[in-house]
Design brief:
This protein is of the alpha+beta class. 18% of the residues lie in helices and 50% in strands.
């Protein structure tokens, strides 16, 4: 091989490595594997149908406001074991659909200047539950405290949009529209 060609290739390789390294170094990704996701599907005057998952995984890219989350369905804990069993086996079929995901972004993220006070934000993206994907728009609150970023959000989803059927026997107890609450505390990922 020609010596000039080898030098040229080495320079291109070094430039490529530098570009990749710079992109990785400048990228600020925040991560949590202990995010809290709660839902409430109760109708008034009936027994509460609530559950909490304290091991939700999420990544927030601080450069562009992109956000992704993965929630293990079987990690939702109910007050009663029988509710949890029915939830996993009959409603969400967690053996077939083990996770729920969200992929989206914080709107107008480039205009946000985070500090230690919560700021109202809009989050837009695709929520997938039980293999069904739907676009959602949610209001949230975001703040930065030292090296951590905290996200809180509440929104509702209709069970029918995710093909979750409510049996007639419990139709009066479970609301068609379920409220979801998030509280994720992100730490910078190295």
């Amino acid at each position: 091989m020609n010596k000039k060609f080898i030098i040229k290739m080495k320079n291109k390789l070094l430039l490529l490595i530098f570009c990749l390294f710079t992109t990785v170094c400048l990228s600020q990704k925040y991560y949590t594997d202990s995010g809290i996701t709660e839902f409430d599907g109760s109708k008034a005057a009936f027994e509460p149908i609530k559950a909490k998952n304290e091991s939700s995984i999420s990544i927030l890219d601080f450069n562009n406001g992109k956000i992704a989350a993965l929630i293990k369905i079987s990690e939702f804990n109910f007050r009663l074991g029988l509710m949890q069993e029915h939830f996993n086996e009959n409603y969400l079929e967690s053996n077939i659909y083990p996770t729920s995901t969200f992929e989206g972004s914080i709107e107008n993220f480039d205009k946000i200047s985070l500090n230690d006070n919560f700021q109202e934000i809009s989050i837009k993206g695709t929520l997938t539950i039980k293999g069904e994907s739907n676009e959602i728009l949610a209001v949230g609150f975001l703040k930065r405290n030292n090296n951590k970023i905290e996200l809180k959000s509440s929104f509702s989803v209709k069970l029918s949009e995710y093909k979750i059927k409510i049996p007639r026997v419990v139709f009066k107890k479970i609301d068609e529209e379920v409220k979801i609450n998030l509280n994720y505390v992100y730490e910078e990922k190295n």
